[in-house]
Amino acid sequence: MKISENAYNLIHLYLTDKLTDKDKALFEEYRKKSEFRNELSKQSKIIASLDKVRDKNIRNFIGNIDAKNNSKKPQKQKTKSKLIPILLASLLFISLVIFSLLSYLRPTTNEQIFAEFYRPYPVENFERSADGQNENSNIKAIKLYANDDFNGALNLLDTMELEDDRLKLYKAICLIETRNLSEAKIVLNDLSSSEKLSYREEAEWYIALIHYKNDDRDSFQIITNKINTMPLHRYYNELKKINLSK
User: How far is the C-alpha of 218 from the C-alpha of 211, rounded, in Å?
Assistant: First the structure.
């Protein structure tokens, strides 16, 4: 089973030693799940293996240089001068391979900042519907969402006519967690015209994070400029922190 975006981000924060106290509590909750532990173990082993390969090749390279320097046989001087460029090229190639793999496994700067600031919207109390069938679907979707089963919640929400802004926001988060960012933006853009201020602000915040993660600087700047004119916006200070992190 594929882990969620939030769980994946927590693993990267853990491996780069950037977990906050709040993150640590959430990390311990996720670690109770076997899928999360398996992914954590896999990424930890890959990074440890890459570090070992890098250290081993550096030691071998230094050892070869020392061995050549200690050799007093004149006939090997030419061989030595030929080997050094080859060893340097080999070391450079290995370093590039390791860097490429680590770049793939570890998030980019944009992804690191996204991981630092992104959190799924928490579950709110939900009023019971007068329609029993809709009530069951709503409650079931919310329970799946609360249990981080974002795929299951999304599958159910896709079958429903969403008139409640809370359910729309849950769907947007499910789409982010399942890495369907383009579809998430569509839902969030619709939600940004909500009659309720709190949902408009949530939508703007998550849209800003998606733009930042996608390195869409122009779109990110547009929404940043908008929020910067609203000091009472609930994410005004958070957005300032992102701009300072750039």
Answer: 9
Integer angstrom CA distances of residue 80 from 60, 71, 74: 15, 10, 10
Taking only the tens place, the pLDDT of each residue in 43-85 is: 787 877 776 666 666 566 556 655 555 555 555 555 556 666 7
pLDDT of residue 173: 95
Q: Euclidean distance between the first and final Cα of the chain, in Å?
A: 34
Task: Give the H or E element holding residue 93.
Answer: helix 77-105
- Separation of alpha carbons 74 and 68, rounded Å: 11
- Hey, what's the torsion of the CAs at 228, 234, 239, 240, to 10 degrees? 70
Counting Cβ atoms within 10 Å, is residue 134 exposed (0-12), middle (13-18) or buried (19+)?
Answer: middle
Report residue 133 as tokens: 């069938």
